């Protein structure tokens, strides 16, 4: 995927998240019901809507830059790999949040996906072994590696469960999409 297509894809998704949050704020949080309802079977489908929703503008602002940076870098590698890494990260993050978050809790936000993209970019170089992927992984680790602490239960109101699931999902995606079996042998 070229830079313009990658920018349009990620920019469009980011714009959608902002429009949804504007609507959510204007309706008193009506969209929050589409977040993940922890440990409720009927809350499982919300695994796919929760990453687009946020608990206020501060939450969305905090997620916007890493969403744009990581999403753009991954999209440059092609739509199929972007989609694969995104879906795996969203599903593993969402299921982990659904299972480990206390009941009667709603989980919202793109941070589980962002954590998945972070670990995907770092792990991709290890599995792919191409110098450019290793360099990107090291650069992402140096610039954003501190985010990895988000997998620990350190801050009230922050879903470490979604972060942990996203981190695991990103590594799974990197292995699946860039492991030796994913490359044709010569």
UniProtKB/TrEMBL annotation:
One of the record's GO cellular component terms: membrane
Entry keyword annotation includes Methyltransferase: no
One GO molecular-function entry: serine-type endopeptidase activity
Segments traversing the membrane: 47-75, 106-127, 134-152, 158-177
InterPro entries in the cross-refs: Peptidase_S54_rhomboid_dom, Rhomboid-like_sf
Keyword entries, A-Z: Membrane, Transmembrane, Transmembrane helix
UniProt-listed Pfam families: Rhomboid (PF01694)
Membrane topology note: Multi-pass membrane protein
Boundaries of every Peptidase S54 rhomboid domain copy: 46-177
Species: Microlunatus soli
Coiled coil start-end: none
Protein name: Rhomboid family protein
